[in-house]
Amino acid sequence: MKGYVLRFSFLLACLTVSACDKPQALTDSPLVLEGKTMGTYWRVSLAGVDSSRVVALQQFIQQQLDEDDHQLSTWKKDSVLSGFNQYRGAEPQPISENMAQIVSVALRIGRRTAGAMDITVGPLVNLWGFGPDKQPIRTPSQAEIDAARALTGLQHLKVIQSGEGQWLQKDLPGLYVDLSTMGEGFATDHLARLMEKEGINNYLVSVGGAVLTRGKNAEGKAWRVAIQKPTDKESAVQAVVDLQGHGISTSGSYRNYYELDGKRISHVIDPASGRPIEHKLVSATVIATTALEADGWDTGLMVLGTEKAKQLAIREKLAVYLITKQNDDFTSWMSPQFAAFLQKQ
Question: Which of helix, strand or coil describes residue 179?
Fold first, then answer.
């Protein structure tokens, strides 16, 4: 959903510092399955699994991810989320338990980031050409930005849950929910649940830039993930982590952009200003108990910029790794919680 580009290496695959590349395990010969979903790529690396199961597993995985996409896509007009966005009433609309979970986590992180992570910024995402709408041919005017911002706000969205089901409600008719910042994390967690259901205990699963691991790789060692430096050189590794059964996600700005009126337009939109970010933070990586949680926090941190992101990471005790552009070089910072996952190269 974030516009990722597939990029693999035989010996090393990186969880990149941009919203571009895709991770894989640091191991020689796992059983690997892969495919496309949500406008990006999924990959599953397995250890101790017979190759005779490949066809069945590939089918199960793709079916599940196709259903997730049908629930969460803003690009498909017949998706559940698109139906909610097109609805102009105020009555609660029935949703799946999965969607209720995603939106609930997003609203919680949105509050904890003072609105920096806002899944209602869809009108602004579309205005700046990063949604289903085409890229603008000119910079949006302040009036257009203000009009789009008037259709946003987490306070206008509510999840209702009871023993009878789950519903999503909005009190602003034009509210447009965009779950692209959370969908990959959720789908990664969903893949992990599928692996457990299939009796598989040693795996690395990823959708786009979200990754989750369990158990050991084909060499009997911990799965490791590398964070790539913000460069076009695929082998340039910034740090290597042992996820210890956690999820990891990276949000970045240095590759997913376009040029307009002589300026670089980032895909990361600041809900407060209604404009793409212009600060020097180029990537934020978060490790959390689930990939969904990591996928939500990394976006909020990217919006905030380096100093505010540091403050938030410390206050919330998050495992965070930040990379900031400084002149012609990059500087990095990690929270104490992130350091616990760091591996010596």
Answer: coil
- CA atoms within a 13 Å half-sphere pointing along the CA-CB vector of 152: 26
The answer to whether the CB of 229 falls within 8 A of the CB of 240 is: no
Q: Which CATH number fits domain 72-170: 1.10.3980.10, 3.40.109.10, 3.40.50.300, 1.10.60.30?
A: 1.10.3980.10
Domain boundaries, the chain: 72-170
Q: What is the pTM of this model?
A: 0.86
Q: Residue 142 contacts by C-beta under 8 Å, 6 or more apart in sequence?
A: none
Splitting the chain (345 residues) into consecutive groups of 10 residues, what average pLDDT does each group show? 29 32 47 92 94 94 95 91 95 94 97 96 87 74 95 96 94 93 94 96 94 93 84 67 93 64 75 90 94 96 96 97 88 95 76
For residue 197, count CB atoms less than 10 angstroms from its CB and return exposed for 0-12, middle for 13-18, buried for 19 or more: exposed
